[in-house]
Design goal:
magnesium; 467 residues; alpha+beta; 2 domains; 30% helix; 6-stranded antiparallel sheet; metal-binding; Rossmann fold
């Protein structure tokens, strides 16, 4: 996915930018970058962070990146921020999102004779470069931002650093978050609301869908008002978000705790222990345990010093290896026990299958699994949640295809309905395929209830295919 951070101060913003960007490290493990504007110059550093944390790669750069305004990025796709020169002057751009119609946009740029692009090492175009070109194609930065937002099929939240300030723009329907912070000597903007609290900022407000503001050391000016329609990604609470983060006023940890409580209220098994697959599953397990009265325990521990979230690496075999390597069993809490495990989701099933296998090898008597979200039936079109090249990589869709072939949307939505016979059949087949003792998926209406905002404002496309 990725995260962005920007700071504008009356003094040097470098340390705020450094730590604020670092606080987004849970959102990506590919590239990190920072750009600062100082005395007419744009100073930039970009490093790969696949094998080292952001902080260790950039701590030497902070002394050189001095200036009153800057933007930073944690990316799971392309190097950024990018600095570009255009008829609007020089500016730097950092983005979070996904572009589904790149070829169409590139063709339009070529037809208008205003752009050329560089390929990355994988032969693909850096999406941030494309966004930067669209921004520079219009009469003003603000018009360019709105043009890019409306032209892009997918999702695009961005920061644009100029000599006049930082333009911050939330994507067209607010699928991702962008929050403003304020303190005595400046302002900041961040994907994650918790990222600036320890830097002395307090919450100012969250940007609305498609809203654009200009941030300077002296204040925040609204450039374009928000739109009415919102479709914020429900997976931000389910998986992506750090526990201390708030989206639309709803805390991630509280949402997961409530989700676990609701899961327990619908369950009828009686295990010896309840555990969460770390990190995202832990709060669900605590909510489940406190409601059910079944003890919470940690029968395996995540080795946090070196292993990041396992879906981040580019290659599937490496993701599988990390899924195995990062979890270390506590045999005394496993041997002879009936365990109930809660994970944030079941995507391909690889990780939960391996987790279940090593629990059995460690002596578990039963392994019951609860997914904190419904079956994932559609690959995300907006935030790169899954790297699957086909929906058939998803275990739920693979098993459906064995029965239905190329299933229609009507049939798929029947599988998504938790009260349908097809959903029950799918759940049983996933359970057998992954060798669980039992399996239950969280109901979509219960996920929506645990978030607690208007369901019409939530994007649930990956579960029900509704845009």
């Amino acid at each position: 996915m990725g995260g962005i951070f920007g700071a504008a101060k009356k003094g040097n913003c470098a340390y705020d930018l450094f730590f604020g960007t670092d606080y987004h490290s849970h959102l990506g493990t590919y590239r990190g970058g920072m750009t600062v504007y100082s005395d007419g110059r744009f100073l930039r550093a970009i490093h790969g962070i696949q094998n080292s944390p952001f902080r260790t790669k950039f701590e030497k750069d902070v002394e050189d990146l001095t200036g009153p305004m800057g933007i930073g990025s944690i990316s799971d796709t392309a190097p950024q921020p990018l600095t570009v020169h255009s008829h609007l002057g020089t500016y730097a751009v950092a983005t979070v999102g996904r572009i589904n119609n790149s070829d169409e946009i590139i063709s339009r740029c070529f037809q208008n004779h205003f752009a050329q692009f560089s390929e990355m090492g994988n032969g693909k175009l850096n999406p941030t470069e494309l966004v930067a070109a669209l921004v520079g194609s219009q009469a003003t930065i603000a018009e360019g931002i709105r043009y890019a937002q409306e032209l892009i099929d997918g999702s695009m939240t961005m920061l644009v650093l100029t000599k006049d300030g930082i333009y911050a723009a939330r994507d067209n329907v607010g699928r991702t978050s962008l929050v403003l912070g304020e303190k005595e000597d400046g302002y900041c903007v961040a994907s994650e609301s918790f990222s600036f609290l320890n830097l002395g900022y307090h919450d100012l407000r969250e940007l609305g869908p498609a809203e654009v503001v200009l941030i300077t050391p002296d204040g925040v000016e609204q450039i374009l008002p928000p739109k009415n329609q919102m479709k914020i990604c429900a997976f931000l609470w389910t998986y992506y978000g750090y526990p201390t983060t708030y989206y639309e006023g709803v805390n991630v940890e509280q949402m997961r705790y409530e989700g676990g409580r609701i899961l327990a209220s619908r369950d009828n098994v009686h295990p010896d222990l309840v555990a969460g697959v770390p990190d995202s599953g832990t709060a669900y397990a605590i909510g489940y345990a406190n409601h059910s009265g079944i003890p919470f325990a940690r029968p395996f521990i995540k080795y946090t010093p070196t292993w990041p979230r396992s879906f981040m690496p580019q290659k599937q075999d490496l993701r599988n290896l990390i899924a195995h390597m990062k979890l270390i069993p506590v045999e005394g809490l496993i041997k002879g026990k009936k365990l109930l495990m809660i994970d944030d989701s079941i995507v391909r099933g690889t990780q939960m299958r391996e987790t279940t296998e090593f629990l059995y090898r460690s002596g578990a008597q039963e392994v019951h699994v609860r997914s904190a979200c419904p079956p994932i039936l559609f690959g995300c079109k907006y935030l790169n949640f899954s790297r699957s090249t086909s929906d058939l990589d998803l275990i739920a869709r693979k098993l459906i295809a064995q029965h239905e072939g190329d299933a229609s949307m009507e049939v798929l939505q029947e599988y998504a309905d938790p009260d349908s016979a097809r959903h029950v059949q799918l759940t049983e087949e996933v359970c057998r395929e992954l060798e669980f003792t039992s399996l239950r998926y969280h109901r979509l209406d219960d996920v929506q209830a645990s978030i607690g905002i208007d369901p019409c404002k939530l994007c649930t496309y990956c579960w029900d295919g509704r845009e």
